[in-house]
């Protein structure tokens, strides 16, 4: 069998038709409501990798018509290494093909090499395991995914790197894998076709989430958000600090308020520390830095709240007129 035939067999192999929505449905954007959807064990569902049924030590989970697997076990299936950061609830995956993936508990944005993308479902933690959406995670691990509805089986196909030869160049590989040369260059972090030389190995699975780049933010914005979060809720839980950070970001998105983090914080009377010097002197601690980063990456626990207040301090007709979304720590979060 020639190299071209092998490539066609391994990479151009037709996928099973994805009949069920169980595996491949998508919901963007993600909100606190989605985070609260029920997690159940997926009954009578099997995982198959390269024709072999995989036995998992932990149950397969289902949430909002999506399948989830424990990140450590899924990574191991593809020869990847996982480092778990318990403090920040982040899993860093180094794949066998040199990619780095960073996934956060409840965070819709994934860091993939030097870029950030929005997943159509986000990881969650249960029973001491972090579960990740099967389709997104498998594609990041350089595999193809399909759903066999008749056998209720998620079918995973690991995909080898394509090797450039004199007969098999970028154009030929692009045709075989169904991606454009431009997409393959981007996937391999290459600026031009000049780098496509004989012997070059190319990643050819283009994760679908690469069509959904996350909105960028600056280190300056993150630090400012962390500083105001520290001042307003630094003596409370991470959840409280996440809520404060999200109120500010919700205001940025709301046309009734300024459209930048800085302008939201420094305008009006909601944030007195911005005007009395406390904000300037604020030194954000680990939880505030994490809350700011997670909020900027789309994790929210207060939906569209644009106000927060301590009911023991803030009283009156205005505060009583608001719709309270949640109470976390000493603050109520409202709109």
TrEMBL record:
What Pfam families is this protein classified in? Cu_amine_oxidN1, Hydrolase_2
Q: Which residues form the signal peptide?
A: 1-34
**Assigned keywords, A-Z:** Hydrolase, Signal
**Is-annotated flag, keyword Membrane?**
no
InterPro entries in the record, alphabetically? Cell_wall_hydrolase_SleB, Cu_amine_oxidase-like_N, Mao_N_sf, SleB_dom1
Gene3D superfamilies from the UniProt entry: 6.20.240.60, Cell wall hydrolase SleB, domain 1 (1.10.10.2520), Copper amine oxidase-like, N-terminal domain (3.30.457.10)
Domain Cell wall hydrolase SleB per the UniProt entry, residue ranges: 236-333
A GO molecular-function descriptor: hydrolase activity
Domain Copper amine oxidase-like N-terminal residues, every copy: 49-154
Quote the protein name from its UniProt record.
Cell wall hydrolase
Species assigned in the record: Cohnella yongneupensis
């Amino acid at each position: 069998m020639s190299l071209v035939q092998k490539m066609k067999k391994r990479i151009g192999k037709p996928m099973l038709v994805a009949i069920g929505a169980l595996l491949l449905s998508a919901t963007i954007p993600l909100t606190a409501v989605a985070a609260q959807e029920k997690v159940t064990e997926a009954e009578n569902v099997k995982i198959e990798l390269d024709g072999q049924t995989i036995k998992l030590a932990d149950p397969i989970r289902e949430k909002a018509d999506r399948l989830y697997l424990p990140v450590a076990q899924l990574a191991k299936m593809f020869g990847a290494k996982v480092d778990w950061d318990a403090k920040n609830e982040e899993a860093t995956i180094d794949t066998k093909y040199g990619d780095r993936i960073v996934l956060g508990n409840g965070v819709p944005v994934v860091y993939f090499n030097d870029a950030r993308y929005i997943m159509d479902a986000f990881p969650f933690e249960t029973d001491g395991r972090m579960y990740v959406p099967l389709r997104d995670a498998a594609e990041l691990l350089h595999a193809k995914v399909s759903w066999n509805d008749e056998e209720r089986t998620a079918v995973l196909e690991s995909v080898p790197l394509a090797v450039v030869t004199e007969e098999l160049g970028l154009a030929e590989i692009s045709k075989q894998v169904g991606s454009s040369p431009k997409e393959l260059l981007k996937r391999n972090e290459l600026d031009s076709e000049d780098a496509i030389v004989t012997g070059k190995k190319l990643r050819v699975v283009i994760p679908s989430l690469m069509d959904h780049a996350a909105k960028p933010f600056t280190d300056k914005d993150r630090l400012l958000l962390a500083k105001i979060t520290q001042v307003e809720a630094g003596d409370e839980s991470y959840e409280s600090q996440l809520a404060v950070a999200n109120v500010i970001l919700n205001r940025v998105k709301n046309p009734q308020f300024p459209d930048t983090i800085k302008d939201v914080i420094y305008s009006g009377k909601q944030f007195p520390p911005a005007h009395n010097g406390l904000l300037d002197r604020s030194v954000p601690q680990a939880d505030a830095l994490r809350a700011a980063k997670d909020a900027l990456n789309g994790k929210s626990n207060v939906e569209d709240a644009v106000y927060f207040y301590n009911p023991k301090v803030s009283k009156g007709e205005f505060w009583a007129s608001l719709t309270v979304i949640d109470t976390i720590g000493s603050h109520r979060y409202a709109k």
